[in-house]
Amino acid sequence: MGYRVAVVGATGNVGREMLNILEEVEFPVDEIHAIASRKSIGVEVSFGDRILKCKDVEQFDFSTVDLVLMSVSGTFSKEWAPKIGAAGPIVIDNSSAWRMDPDVPLVVPEVNPDDVEWADRRNIIANPNCSTAQLVVALKPLHDRARIKRVVVSTYQSVSGAGKEGMDELWDQTKGIFVLGPSEPKKFPKQIAFNVIPFIGAFNDDGYTDEEAKMWNETHKMIDPEIALTVTCVRVPVMVGHSESVNIEFHEPLDEDEARDLLRNSPGLIVIDQRNDKGYITPKEAQGEFPVFVSRIRRDPTVEHGLNLWVVADNLRKGAALNAVQIAQLLDERGLIGDR
Fold first, then answer.
1. Is residue 238 annotated as involved in ligand binding?
2. Where does phosphate bind (predicted)?
C-alpha cells in the first residue's frame, strides 16, 4: 500500500524534479497527480515510465490525496497551501511563503527532523531557501560540537535558482555573444553570461537583499537564533549547482582535522578535501547528486576558533526537490501521513 500524492507546480524545474526523485527513491506511491495552473492543463510530464497530464489546481479535489508537494510562487502558496491543508493532506511547500510562520515547521531532515511532529498545526511544512538548505546541513554537526558564534557566507548561485527563464537567459546570452552579439537582459538586471551579479531578490532598507535575509532568518529558526550570520548572495553564470564560501567562528576550539571527521560522519554530507589542484568539488560535479559536498576545510588564523569551508550542492535537488521528498520520507517513517 502506498500514498496518494499530488505535485503542484509540476511543469516547473523543481516540480519536474520532485516527480523524478519520488520515482528515483521509490517513495510508496499508489496514485500520482500532476497539478498546475489552468494554462498548463494537459501539459505532459513524466513520472518514471509513465506520462502524466497536468490537471487544473482550481478543479482538483485535494481531499482525495494524502500528501502534496508544492513548488509555486509565494503568492500562490499563501492562497492555496491553507486551503489544501484544510482539505486533509500535508503540504510540503517549496516557496518562501511559510518559512518564518511560527506555526509551520521549517525542515531539513538532517538538521531538525523532530520539527515534523508539529506539522499538524496547519498541515504545512516549509522547505528552506536553496542556499540555506545546503548551508545548515554543513553547519549543524559543527555547531553541535563547538557552538558557532559567527558565520560569514558568500554564495555563488546558479541561474537555475531563477527557474527556466534564468537558464534560458544564460544560454541565449552566451550564444549571442559569440554569434549574434549581446542581447538585453530580461530575467536578470544585468548581463549574466561571462559576468557575476551581486544581487538576488529585492533590496531591503538595510541594504541587504531578501535572499540574504532568508538565509540568516532560516538558519536561526532551524539551528540557533544566537548565531551571528552575515551573507552576500551572488548570481554566477553556472546552470545548476550553488556554491558557498563559509567562514565560521566558534565559541569552543575545533581543529580542521576533527571538523573534517565530524563532517565525514554526518548524514547528507560528503567531504572531498585533498590539497591538490583537483581535490575539491565544483557545482558541475555536484549536479544530479543528492548530498551536500564540503571541500577546502582549513583553519582561519585571524580569529581564536575559526574555520573556512567550501560548500556545494545541486540546488534543484538538495536545495529544493530532494529536500521536499526527504521530508515526505521522514513523515512516512514516523507514520504522520494520513491513512496508508
1. no
2. 99
Answer yes or no: do 141 and 252 share one domain: yes
Q: Is 13 annotated as a binding residue?
A: yes
CA–CA dist 340, 338 (Å, integer) = 7
- Give tens-digit pLDDT for 14-27: 999 999 999 999 99
Q: Is 220 a catalytic residue?
A: no
Q: Are 62 and 68 in contact (CB under 8 A)?
A: yes
In a domain, 338, yes or no: no
107-to-30, 97, 129 alpha-carbon distances in Å: 25, 14, 11
Annotation says 33 is catalytic: no
Which residue among 130, 143, 233, 305 is the active-site one? 130
Does 62 fall in a domain?
A: yes
Tens of pLDDT along 60-76? 999 999 999 999 999 99
The model's pTM: 0.95
pLDDT over 50 at 334, yes or no: yes
14 and 151 co-located in one domain? no
How many separate domains does the chain show? 2
| Torsion angle, alpha carbons of 260, 132, 158, 51, to 10 | 110
CB 107 within 8 A of CB 329: no
